[in-house]
Amino acid sequence: MVVVILLQAVPNAWAQRRSSWGRSVSLSSHERAPFVDVKTTHELEEAKLGRKIADCRDFPSDNNCTLTITGEEEEVLVAATQHAVSAHGHEDTAEVRDWLRQNLKDEAVSS
Questions:
Q1: Among the four 8, 20, 31, 44, which has the fewest Cβ within 10 Å?
Q2: Are the C-beta atoms of 100 and 81 separated by less than 8 Å?
Q3: Cβ(90)–Cβ(29) under 8 Å?
Q4: What whole-number distance in Å separates Cα of residue 65 and Cα of residue 56?
Q5: Regarding beta strands 3-8 and 16-18, do their DSSP bridges make them parallel or antiparallel, or are they unpaired?
Q6: Any idea of the CA torsion for 101, 102, 103, 107, to the nearest 10 degrees?
Q7: Whole-angstrom distance, CA of residue 19 vs CA of residue 12
Q8: Do 66 and 56 touch, CB atoms closer than 8 A?
Q9: pLDDT single digits (tens) 11-53
């Protein structure tokens, strides 16, 4: 099993320590310990595979729409359905949602 460690800087509000007299003292940027988030490669791949894209540029439209929606499948489906209704005049029906779901693409995995 491969383990990937992601390092993130600690926000300034969290980067404080107590001096010996009980006062808060800010840590300088080189003193700040990173926040460590450990994920296996399986967890990283699982997170990437769950993301979908709905891109209006893939389909002809009267208004030459260029909207792209990216996220987890269900949230993209909800947003794309709302957009299809409000911007393109479709009705919110099971058929439209099914068509949108069938035309979602997987987000490109970047390394």
A1: 20
A2: yes
A3: no
A4: 6
A5: unpaired
A6: 70
A7: 17
A8: yes
A9: 444 444 444 445 555 555 555 555 555 656 656 665 556 799 9
| Residue 32, both tokens | 């700040």
pLDDT of 3: 47
The predicted pLDDT at position 14 comes to: 40
DSSP string, the chain: --EEEEEEPPPGGG-EEE-TTS-EEEPPTTTPPPEEEEEEHHHHHHHHHTEEEEEGGGS--TT----EEEEEHHHHHHHHHHHHHHHH-----HHHHHHHHHT-EEPPPP-
User: Is the pTM of the predicted complex or chain greater than 0.70?
Assistant: no
Do residues 4 and 48 lie in contact, with contact meaning Cβ atoms separated by under 8 Å? no
Phi, psi angles (nearest 5°) of residue 78: -65, -50
